[in-house]
User: Fold alpha-L-rhamnosidase from uncultured Arthrobacter sp.
Amino acid sequence: MYPVTMGATTIWERWDSMLPNGDINPGEMTSFNHYALGGVADWVYKVVGGIRPDCPGYESVLIKPVPGRGIEWARTRLESPHGTIVAQWRLSHGRFRLDLDLPQGLTARVVLPDGQKHVVTRGGTQVFSCEMRDPQSPSNVAVE
Assistant:
């Protein structure tokens, strides 16, 4: 929180780019707008949580979570211009379950890990599930 207490409105390359007295840190790597660290949040929302805009302004959304590789559950909440979107999923004993909560008036295309596709046109909570083989298994790797 140090950068915020120093007035930051962007992500700094290093936490102490500005010294407590307001001077710029004389060390290297003192960018005050370093998006690379923000890429992690983008990955969590779009890949792990699976919430992506399907049209500009989130007029519709694509929900396509990518479970596996040690991640067994996720709960992602996004404040869109149309209301709160919550995608919560769990992978347990070869079953994938997605609980999706959408605001009224928002359309979502849902793609489950097994390839099933659904379109949701009403708000509220929807539940989806599918069988899912072990995402760590070598059968998911193609070698050419």
Observations:
- Residues 49-133 form a domain with the Maltose phosphorylase, domain 3 fold (CATH 2.60.420.10).
